[in-house]
Write a structure and sequence with these properties.
Distance between the termini of chain A: 24 Å
Distance between the termini of chain B: 13 Å
CATH architecture of chain A: Up-down Bundle
Number of helices of chain B: 17
Structural class of chain B: mainly alpha
Order of helices and strands of chain B: HHHHHHHHHHHHHHHHH
Helix content of chain A: over 70%
Strand content of chain B: under 5%
Largest interface: A-C, 76 and 71 residues
Structural class of chain A: mainly alpha
Number of strands of chain B: 0
Largest sheet of chain A: none
Helix content of chain B: over 70%
Number of domains of chain A: 1
Oligomer: heterotrimer
Number of helices of chain A: 17
Number of strands of chain A: 0
Order of helices and strands of chain A: HHHHHHHHHHHHHHHHH
Largest sheet of chain B: none
Shape of chain A: globular
CATH topology of chain A: Formate dehydrogenase/DMSO reductase fold
Chains: A mainly alpha (466), B mainly alpha (417), C alpha+beta (410)
Strand content of chain A: under 5%
């Protein structure tokens, strides 16, 4: 196996030919077997139980804290004048950002004919859904009186009032709502043929029933495939501008304000690049151990991981470019408040957060310039973990440093999180991993039919060859 | 997939041949003529005088520079992603990129005006204006003639080096067929892209943003970048269509390749809309005097009419027009949209540059309307003609297809699903 | 039919639904599909584990109308978003926010965009399911065991029994001729499974339970009650605030307003110039201007007019007669709660000690809010001086005009 795999890796660097995307010794039935096996095993690996136990406990903690928050009010958070946007917004932006990698891999790379995506797209799409779930939680509870959350939607109500459609916060409701819906449809739509694989292999009654229901009676008919492929292509084409729009709208929450450090025109593309950056880091964080635990090395090869690392490097450079532009233009603007805010970010109260952000997001990913390093699992894990941390701090730096140092020195302050803030951040990871581990256990974690479609046999090479 | 033999390309007519000198003579002559007439009009008669001529010249220069930079992006990004589809049409981009030394010469008038301390183009270059204006004074560390000159020497040094490297290695491969050259170009493409991003950004700040030295926008580099890619995709499509009319490249470039070029054009029409909207909406919404003046001038009165033209004709209409698969696979409609976008991109730059003329930029009380003048057209068309002549000059001896590119077979066999 | 002789499935009674043939890979499938198409069959299909490249022309499948459905849905989304935003914010409930137009493109584009995408995605998802006749859990072809390979590595062609050219023997020969890996008949057992009992029961119970809150809601909509409403969320309904004229349960002495802490001074107690700062000396309102602002200068009067026109004139009017823009508008609305502003030039206020006018500015009176935080001490006195001037000028007679200037009045 290792020989075959390293041959693939070797071919990838040879411009005269295209290397196969998965290990060349795989047959169609091996792909079905390898992937379905994960969901069919009567017992998952021990590590799964350990991880699931911890995640579930953290999820429980998260929901207890939410209950406490609702009963006691948002005062249990550290949010207070002048930093009215504290951890909840930071967590929201962080999780929405994580979600972007899934859509990027499934939609944008699909449009760019990057066929290597087939091995990892399902995984990343699932991650998107769960990240968006975590993200949606925070603005939901941040409204304070959650039982009035329906005010966010344009529903006729007893006050005869309508929401303000000119507010970026309402754009957020629509953008994140659309994003969650479309990602879910896209994910599920792609999964229908693979659920049918599980249905046709299912032994138990429950499995037959549930996989049967969710595969909708898929038969693999060519007439169905025809419409299915068309719909998939169009969904991808729709998801591509959508993924740009979502994080742009999130950035508008900040950028339409007049606050120095928030109001910068580069924020929309900068947020999108940052989102993809953090999302890829999260995909790699999850993929690296998962491919080992579930024996997917032949389908998710080191080359897939390396490609993702290249995307991390590229988007990391874009993020670095945006930091640099913000800094340069803040000086170039000649506006005293602009100049101050950026100097304050780097050398003021929150300099520690700023330098964590810069080192994690810009400096550490530079290791990926070197082929050896971006193929070494330990180095990869080191880098992507730091990127995850760094991207959380990026949002923290943006939200908090600007709020606590606005135009009026009299209203300056310092934000400190409470233990509830920190607990909820940790708990949201618990929720994310709980959902993710359930996905790993019960659903096809690799897009089986898509992988088959990019194997050399799919083009009839083998039959015609002999 | 059965890969056709790249040898078919050998039978293709893939040299400019006598067409090269012909284009060089006519377009070069025309360009020089137009520019000289424009210059004479500038010196003597027209309203705004020399300043007007230089503004029009800057518009034209930003236009042709954007085409060349778009070509650079095309070459770099395809090496970066190891793309195979474009192997048969990438040479067009490499030749366009090869005009960088010519662009450096064409930049001299702007550079000279700055070094002479002439305030009619860049007001900050005039010491008299700069010393009285508090904001310009604050930025003098960046906006001063000497540093401006140094920066442009650096930009052109990098661009010329990149153009020589990518065109040169690709041409060398035509002889040797060494796949290692491709590997090497791929290897350097990442770093080159980084240099490209930084130089393009600062060049756009210097050339366009600092025309109004008060105004600033962090996204401006990306805005110019989006326009550049549109400009080059359109230019490349038109060039290939015209070459095919002359019987060249008929076997090497197929409708599948045009389709992909069209897709990129379409994608960047959307991207431009996204970036332009982000820039405008954020400044409009926050409405702070430091920034909003720039747009105020450009969305009021007759410039506002131009802005509306841009919204619809630079984004909405071509977006709808290029959306369909058939529009991109029909050479007549594709070249129509390419021509359309090239003109729109030029109007976009005109709209960015021209309102600054006559000190009517930021913060002035009176808002001038569009005063289109003959000198504008002369300068822009003159520069564009010279640019086309330059492309013909670079491409006059070389093959229009990278004949021994290792992925040529893949590119020829390529089909859009 | 001859096919009913087949007893492989042990259900001779089931009608023949079609014939299935397996092929060895996508290439063979494509070739076979071309031949089936050319043989003129209409009710047949290819089945494969992934979309086979080039199968559509081989089968003669025409392009789907799905893109048009999606375009239609997208335009619907765009229209809904536009009308919704225009009507709610521009017509039905117009309100100004930070000077933005009620309805204008820049601020309304994001939602137009999102709804266009959302509805297009619905179009793509549901449109393709409906066109594909999904979900449909039972198909006759599923009765074939061999067919289960279709989601693994099986490539099949199935010809339905309702094809006009259906002839089992001919078809089998045709398939055999194409080099099939195996031919099979499949039967329409029509054995759609009923919903399993337990699932049905649980669903029914959940449904009935779900009706209970609804029933309560309906009941309370149509009945009255003397009980206070339920407080699901206590939150702000019961706040630990002190109510006027009530004892505080929080402090042991029951006093809500806390006495001065021993050994401390209120800021006003430390005031070195109460005449200037408070307009009150030893509990008495002052009748003279404080020394610090004397002598009154023209400069100060101009300053007073400027401050007066900024802070006072909106209600009291520039002439001080209580007819400012706000007052005029408020009285025209005829709301009962509005207390009209005083006429500053009438006799009552003309007789007021300056200290009282000063205090009114500083602390407010009746509905007038305090302006102490906005107007600084010297400016307050400047306003007082200007009011005094207004009182004189508005009640002036011809005698107040110097003799020399009287001529100019005519």
């Amino acid at each position: 196996m290792t020989n075959e795999l390293s041959r693939v890796d070797f071919l990838a660097d040879d411009p005269t030919q295209r290397a196969p995307l998965v290990s060349p010794d795989l047959e169609f039935k091996d792909v079905t077997q390898t992937v379905c096996e994960v969901a069919e095993k009567p017992k998952p690996p021990k590590a799964w139980y350990v991880a699931f136990g911890i995640s579930l406990a953290l999820t429980g903690m998260l929901f207890s804290m939410i209950a406490y928050l609702i009963i006691a009010g948002v005062g249990v958070w550290g949010n207070n004048s002048p930093a009215f946007w504290g951890f909840p917004i930071v967590n929201f932006v962080f999780w929405v950002g994580i979600g972007h990698a899934g859509t990027l891999i499934s939609a944008i790379l699909f449009l760019f004919r990057q066929k290597w995506r087939t091995s990892i797209n399902r995984f990343a799409e699932a991650m998107t859904i769960f990240a968006v779930v975590c993200a949606g939680l925070f603005p939901g509870i941040h409204v304070g009186r959650v039982w009035f959350a329906y005010w966010l939607f344009p529903i006729p109500n007893q006050m005869e009032m309508w929401p303000n459609f000119r507010s970026p916060l309402l754009w957020d409701v629509f953008a994140v709502g659309t994003y969650a819906t479309v990602s879910l449809l896209f994910w599920y739509f792609g999964m229908i043929p693979d659920l049918a694989s599980l249905r046709d292999r299912a032994k138990g009654k429950i499995g037959k029933l549930l996989y049967g229901i969710f595969s909708l009676g898929w038969s693999g008919s060519a007439r169905h495939w025809h419409r299915y492929e068309r719909a998939y292509l169009i969904l991808a084409a729709l998801a591509t501008p959508l993924v740009l729009s979502v994080h742009s709208v999130v950035s508008f929450d900040f950028a339409v304000a007049q606050l120095p450090g928030w109001h910068a025109t580069i924020l929309p593309p900068y947020f999108v690049a940052g989102a993809i950056f953090s999302g890829f880091a999260m995909v790699v964080t999850l993929m690296l151990p998962a491919r080992l635990f579930f024996g997917l090395q032949k389908i998710v090869t080191m080359r897939h991981i390396e490609n993702m690392n290249k995307v991390i490097l590229a988007t990391g450079m874009m993020v670095g470019y945006s930091y640099a532009m913000e800094f340069f233009i803040s000086w170039y603007s000649g506006a005293p408040a602009e100049r101050f805010v950026f100097i304050n970010r780097a050398f003021g109260n929150y300099a520690w957060a700023y330098w964590i952000m810069v080192s994690c997001n810009v400096l550490i990913p530079q290791l990926f310039w070197f082929k050896k390093l971006r193929r070494n699992p330990w180095v990869i894990m080191f880098v992507v973990l730091f990127v995850n941390v760094g991207m959380w701090f990026e949002r923290f730096v943006i939200a908090v440093t600007s709020l606590t140092r606005d135009f009026t020195p009299a209203s300056w302050g310092y934000f400190s999180p409470t233990w509830i803030d920190i607990g909820m951040l940790v708990g949201s990871f618990g929720l994310f991993f709980t959902l993710f581990l359930l996905f790993l256990r019960f659903l096809p974690i690799v897009a089986i039919s898509e992988v088959k479609g990019v194997m050399p046999q799919a083009h009839g090479h083998h039959e015609e060859g002999h | 997939m059965n890969h056709p033999n790249p040898e078919v390309v050998l039978n293709d007519d893939r040299h400019l041949g006598p067409l090269g000198p012909k284009i060089l003579r006519t377009m070069g002559g025309l360009g020089l003529l137009l520019l000289i007439v424009g210059l004479i009009l500038g010196i003597t008669g027209t309203e705004g005088g020399m300043s007007r001529f230089l503004f029009a010249y800057t518009t034209g220069f930003a236009f042709i520079l954007s085409i060349a930079l778009g070509a650079m992006f095309f070459v770099l990004v395809n090496h970066l992603t190891r793309a195979g589809w474009c192997a048969s049409s990438r040479r067009i981009a490499e030749i366009t990129l090869g005009t960088m030394p010519i662009l450096a010469v064409l930049f001299l008038p702007i550079l000279v005006s700055v070094l002479m301390g002439y305030g009619g183009l860049f007001s900050w270059a005039d010491h008299g204006i700069a010393s009285k204006d508090h904001l310009i004074h604050l930025k003098a560390g960046y906006l001063n003639p000497v540093f401006f000159a140094i920066r442009w020497v650096i930009y052109f040094a990098i661009w010329i080096q990149l153009s020589k490297y990518y065109l040169g290695n690709s041409l060398r491969q035509d002889d040797s067929g060494d796949p290692a050259l491709t590997s090497r170009m791929q290897k350097w493409s990442a770093l080159s892209t980084l240099l490209f991003a930084l130089t393009l950004t600062f060049a756009s700040f210097d050339l366009l943003m600092s025309l109004d030295p008060h105004w600033f926008s962090t996204i401006f580099g990306v805005y110019y970048f989006a326009g550049s890619v549109i400009a080059f995709q359109a230019f490349g499509i038109l060039a290939m269509v015209l070459l095919q009319r002359k019987g060249k490249l008929e076997k090497s470039v197929s409708i599948e390749h045009f389709h992909d070029w069209g897709k990129l054009l379409f994608a960047f029409v959307f991207f431009w809309g996204y970036i332009a909207y982000s820039q405008f909406m954020l400044i409009w919404y926050a409405n702070i005097p430091e920034e909003t003046g720039w747009f105020h001038v450009r969305i009021t009165g007759s410039w506002g009419g131009v802005a509306l033209i841009l919204v619809f004709a630079h984004f909405v209409i071509p977006f709808a027009g290029l959306m369909s698969r058939h529009a991109k696979r029909n050479l007549a409609s594709l070249s129509f949209w390419a021509m359309w976008m090239l003109i729109m991109h030029c109007i976009d730059l005109y709209w960015v540059v021209m309102p600054n003329q006559g000190g009517h930029g930021h913060g002035s009380e009176s808002i001038p309307g569009v005063h289109f003048q003959a000198v504008d057209l002369l300068a822009i068309l003159g520069l564009f003609s010279l640019f086309v002549a330059g492309v013909a000059y670079v491409g006059r001896h070389c093959s229009l297809v990278a004949i021994k590119e290792p992925r040529l077979a893949e590119s020829l066999a390529f089909e859009n699903v | 039919m001859q096919a009913s002789a087949n007893t492989d499935h042990g259900e001779a009674s089931a009608p023949l639904a079609g014939i299935l043939a397996e092929f060895d890979g996508p290439g063979a499938l494509k070739k076979a599909a071309t031949r089936v198409r050319d043989a003129g069959f209409t009710r047949w299909d290819c089945y494969s584990p992934f979309p086979v490249h080039g199968i559509d022309p081989a089968m003669g499948v025409r392009p789907t109308i799905l893109p048009w459905i999606i375009l239609g849905m997208g335009l619907t989304g765009l229209t809904i978003a536009t009308v919704l935003q225009w009507w709610t914010n521009g017509v039905d409930y117009p309100f100004l926010i930070s000077g933005k137009p009620l309805f204008g493109l820049p601020a309304n584009i994001p939602i137009m965009f999102e709804l266009t995408i959302l509805l297009s995605a619905f179009g793509a998802f549901f449109g393709s399911l409906i066109l594909n006749d999904l979900p449909r859990f039972y198909r006759p072809i599923f009765s074939s065991k061999r067919f289960r390979k279709v989601t693994d590595n099986g490539f099949f062609i199935g010809i339905d029994a309702n094809d006009p050219q259906f002839d089992p023997n001919k078809i089998k020969t045709l398939f055999a001729d194409m080099g099939t890996m195996g031919v099979e008949e499949f039967y329409d057992h029509d054995n759609r499974a009923a919903l399993p009992r337990p699932i049905f029961r649980v669903g029914m119970i959940l449904f009935l339970l779900g009706l209970i809150p609804l029933a309560f809601a309906v009941k309370s909509r149509h009945s009255t009650s003397s009980q206070p409403r339920w407080h699901f969320w206590r939150d702000m309904d019961f706040q630990p605030v002190v109510r006027a004229q009530r004892a505080s349960a929080f402090f042991p002495d029951g006093r809500a307003l806390r006495p001065q802490v021993e050994g401390t001074l209120a800021r006003e107690q430390a005031d070195k110039d109460p005449h200037l700062n408070q307009g009150k000396v030893n509990g008495k309102l002052v009748t003279t201007f404080p020394k610090a602002v004397l002598p009154l200068s023209m400069e100060m009067m101009v300053r007073g007019r400027d401050r007066f026109n900024t802070y006072c004139a909106p209600c009291h009017g520039r002439d001080g007669k209580g007819k400012g823009l706000v007052a005029t508008r408020a009285s025209s609305l005829g709301e009962g709660t509005w207390v009209p502003p005083s006429n500053l030039t009438d006799a009552r206020i003309a007789k007021m000690p300056v200290g009282e006018i000063y205090q009114t500015i500083r602390y407010g009176v009746r509905n007038m809010p305090k302006y102490g935080p906005q107007i600084e001490v010297r400016d307050r006195w400047a306003i007082v001086a200007y009011i005094r001037a207004l009182q004189r000028s508005q009640n002036a007679s011809i005698k107040d005009v110097p003799e020399a200037d009287r001529g100019k009045l005519k």
